[in-house]
Amino acid sequence: MSTQPPTYVLVSGPEEVMAERGVASVVTLVREQEADAEVVRLYAGSYTPGDLGVHASPSLFGGWTVIVVHDLDEADDALLDDVMALLAAPADGVTLIVRHKSGNRGKRVLDALRKAGARVIEAKAIKSEGDKLGFVMGEFQTGRRRIERDAALALVHAVGKDVRELAGACEQLIRDTTGSVGVEKVETYYGERVETTGFKVAEAALAGNEPEAMRLLRHAMTGGLDPVPIVAVLAMQLRQVGRVGAAGRASSGTVAKDLGIAPWQVDQARRVAQGWDGHRLGRAIQAVAAADVEVKGGLRTGTTVARSPEYAVERAVMTICRERRS
Length: 326
What we know:
elongated; five-stranded parallel β-sheet; two-stranded antiparallel ribbon; 10% strand; alpha/beta
């Protein structure tokens, strides 16, 4: 026996990609039960008083209607009053989806929706590198595929300025590749964007190749890459060398399992670690930690003001190169 489509749905949060998916998932659910359901979209910016009631009225021909009210957080009183009226007197054969990005505007409607048992779909902001990394990992998990953490981070650095573009990149890799997705596959598809990011800079710096590291770094920053992800990758790569170096001479598979990384990453870190000792690695990590403070706004102590982010990351890269060669 079929289940009646949901009556009320609240899509809450500022992330448009997730909100669009939420709305689409409800429309799909409704059409699985009511194949000919009509979708009506109303926008706060162009709303005419009474429109909601007109579209919610029973049709002479029957059928189900999905009404999507966009931008309730920008709605005038007329739209808010019309939504409240529909909640007070639910219409048969109607699913109401309300889209609210943020803020207190329309709070009485949100409270009424929740009180009426509305299904709530969260569309939380995806802004930080950690948010985007989690988004990529989730996309691959949903697609029943595996992506290595370093590869996911490389993808974020390559196309992560826009969540919609990032989602498209995940879709392409899931569709066009097989097996586990590593950094190499990301570079194959997005090499022009990845080749001068933090991974290549870190590779050259940890090898002590200062001219190449500085060339890559300056090219990346000239191209608009923010210093923050470069410092993050430098820190991650240095920590990985330290962790692998401290793990002993067990097999790559054993160390990888213990540290939660891939065997090839263990082998790579071991090759890099051959040119380092604990003291020099520690000084390099300290230099990157100092750069991390500066690229994120710096510290002000008395009359001392942090230098520019670009200078901070350049100084960290030079320190890593020189510690490696010392």
